[in-house]
Amino acid sequence: MKLSKNPNREEELSLIDDLLERSVAEVLPSKEALKEVLLSGKKLRIYIGTDATGTSLHLGHATNYIILEKFRKLGHKVIFLIGDFTARIGDPTDKEAVRKQLTRADVKRNVGTWIKQIAPVINIKDRKNPVKIAYNHDWLSKLDFEDVIGLASNFTVQQMLERDMFERRMNEEKPIYLHEFFYPLMQGYDSVALDVDIEMCGNDQKFNALAGRTLQRKLNNREKFVFITTLLVNPVTGEKMMSKSLGTGVFLDESATDMFGKIMAQADENIPQLFVDCTYVPMNEIKAIKDDLEKERVNPRDIKIRLAKEIVAIYHSWAEAEKAAEEFESVFRNKELPSDIEEISMAADSMTATDFLVFSGLSSSKSDARRLIEQGGMKVDGKKVSAFDEVIEIIDGLVVQAGKRRFIKIKRS
Question: In what order do the strands lie in the sheet with 77-82?
Answer without folding.
Answer: 24-28, 225-229, 198-202, 45-50, 77-82, 132-135
